[in-house]
Amino acid sequence: MQTIDLRRDTITIPTAEMKDEAFKAPLGDSVYGEDPKQRDLEKVAAEKLGKEAAIFVPSGTQGNLVALLTHTERGNEIIVEENAHIRTSETGGASCVGGLMIKTVYGEDGAPAPEGVEDAIRKNDIHYPRTALICLESTHYRYGGIVPPLDQFKKIQNIAVQHKIPVHLDGARIFNSSIYLGVDVKKIARYADSVMVSLSKGLGAPVGSVLCGTSEFIEKAKRHRKMLGGGMRQTGWLCACGIIALSDNNINNLKADHENAKLLAQGLSDIPGFTLNLERVHTNFVLAQLHHSKYNAFSLLEILKIKRILATQADEATLRFVTSREIEHNDIVAVIDTIRAIL
Ligand code: TLP
Q1: What number does the ligand 1 atom closest to the CA of 84 have?
Q2: Fewer CB atoms < 10 Å away: N or C end of the chain?
């Protein structure tokens, strides 16, 4: 039996078409702005997201950090949802590199609660740091790929405009959100001034993300990307894959990942010991709480590993499964059957 890897959607391997296009790609030095495919990818990304311009960056973490540096100055404060990836999983880059304070606001549905955001904005007082940015995330990683409702984003944007504070969206999986909501991705991106999108997760490119915003913002961002070591050279190989990642066909394939996640969630919820909130399985993540007399999340994961099924732990009692194009319907059935047999 082959390993069934449900740890992350970053395990996706480039398609044959991507590999083919990568080898055919014309190359140039992208630090001089001379890589044709990087220029093409940046144009495609900006158009898709409904923004004026975009830049290609090596990772989502760098894309978010470039955005923070571009929107803010050292000593400013940024507002993020309490469990936002920018705060929990980016090695403290906002504080360490950006010199930023982080103000957290809780939000039930993945978006920081608008009233909390309003309260968190600093008054103009010499004792306080200046609130320089509000960050959003869609899909929300820590809450299991849920998609915050757009009316929350709208309310937050209204507050931001009123206070003249820009909004950055960590849209690592924004195309999963657009499929869940059944709206064009532009209709999500419009609530933010800048958006980071990952090409290397469910979309299958081997490396890279894009950061999108106004032309002026992106010009400024280029300097920060260079400072962080993101000035790459013959990027055409990677960007050729990125262009295919952003094609409509490729994006539509994410639907199968969502269906597999639903199937898995349904199957697990029928096994005694598991508690799942099926209504919160929006995209390609499944969070399953285990309360069993013999196994906890950790020991079950260890046994699954021996049986060549890989997943991760979201917290002490919760297993996290992430579907991707590497996973097929039959794999999901096999996972459910195996777990049922163990428990
Ligand atoms: N998330 C990682 C985890 O940190 C391990 C993953 O494997 O999915 N924003 C969001 C919402 C993310 O989920 C991630 C990756 C990033 C940003 C950072 O992207 P990368 O991994 O490209 O730096």
Answers
A1: 11
A2: N
| Residue 242: both structure tokens together | 């990125």
* CATH code for the domain defined by 12-250: 3.40.640.10
Given CA atoms 70, 75, 78, 83 in this order, what sign does their dihedral have? Answer: positive
210 and 54 Cβ atoms separated by less than 8 Å: yes
Q: What is the CATH number of domain 253-342?
A: 3.90.1150.10
Where exactly are the structural domains of the chain? Answer: 12-250, 253-342
Q: Would the CB of 61 count as within 6 Å of ligand 1?
A: yes
Q: What is the pLDDT of residues 226-271, one digit of tens each?
A: 999 999 999 999 999 999 999 999 999 999 999 999 999 999 999 9
CB of 137 closer than 6 A to ligand 1?
yes
* Candidate of 62, 86, 89 to mutate for ligand 1, largest count of ligand atoms within 8 Å of Cβ: 89
Considering only CA atoms, which of 121, 114, 107 is closest in space to residue 154? 114
Protein residue with its CA nearest to atom 15 in ligand 1: 60
